[in-house]
Each structure stands twice: as structure tokens, then as C-alpha cells.
Specification:
Blueprint: H1 2-21, H2 24-29, E1 36-37, E2 40-41, H3 42-76
Antiparallel strand pairs: 1-2
Helix pairs in contact: 1-3
Length: about 80
């Protein structure tokens, strides 16, 4: 059960990191219309990169902490 609490804590932290990064004060830093990254406006590149990284980190957290708990459950049976 300890790893389940750890997984939940990490997911809550990732949620709040996402809220902070995708909220107005941070987004306003990247709202310059003249700067582009590979032809994509900087704001869009930041939003989609941050979004993709949060999904990737969340998937890794769920996958690897999920495997530890399922192995532990299988051994108990």
C-alpha cells in the first residue's frame, strides 16, 4: 500500500506542476508573437511540449509503480 500512496502523491504533484506551468503568469512569458520554434509560435510550442511531457511522466509513473504493486499482490496469493 505504501507504493500506492507514493504513486498518488506523485500524480498530485504532477497535476499541480501542470496547473502552474499552464496558467497565465507562465504562459505570458512565452506569448511573444515574433519568436518561433521550427516555424511554430513559441507559446504553442511551449503548451504542447509541456502537455506531452506531463502525459509522458504520468504514464511512466503509473506504469512503473503499477508493476511493483501487481508483483507484490501476485506473490501474496
Amino acid at each position: 500500500m505504501d507504493s500506492e500512496k507514493q504513486k498518488n502523491s506523485r500524480l498530485i504533484i504532477f497535476f499541480f506542476i501542470g496547473v502552474i506551468l499552464l496558467n497565465y503568469p507562465i504562459l505570458s512569458l512565452f506569448s511573444d508573437n515574433e519568436r518561433n520554434v521550427f516555424g511554430i509560435p513559441l507559446l504553442y510550442a511551449f503548451v504542447f511540449t509541456t502537455w506531452a511531457l506531463l502525459i509522458f511522466i504520468t504514464a511512466l509513473t503509473v506504469r512503473y509503480t503499477g508493476n511493483k504493486t501487481s508483483q507484490h499482490t501476485d506473490k501474496a496469493q
